[in-house]
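We modelled the chain as a single entity of 139 amino acids. Its sequence is:
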Amino acid sequence: MNKLAKTMIATLSILLIAGVAALIVVLNVKDDENNSSAQTLDDMVEYSYQTSEITTDLEDGSFVRIQFQIITDSKKAKEEVGKREFQLKNILIKELAKMEEEDFKSGLGSLEDVIKLKLNEKMSEGKITDVYTISKILQ
């Protein structure tokens, strides 16, 4: 074999080994990120904020009393949500004023999504991962 062929084979072998090593590192880092992003139940409880009960009227004149459990991704985010409860109440009043009794009965999931989206827009420390309705009374 000539010298050029030996050099090419050695170079290709080194590149192949480096490529496989890089692929292994990338896949392991991606798996670690996926595992760390999923909150455990203990984390959810630790980083959750329970709102006070909010009473407001719907578009059709019905009244609703509602309470939420807001799950954040960190302790600082939980503290910030507590400080932003007045903004949460404002968002709720505006959103519930657009709803009627039938919308309220079937549209709690979309209301939770709107709260999550609008509060995340205001958050500066961390983010809100979930919003759960824990109490509701429609009158």
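As a brief sanity check on the tokenised model: Residues 80 and 123 are 7 Å apart (CA to CA). The two ends are 90 Å apart (CA to CA).
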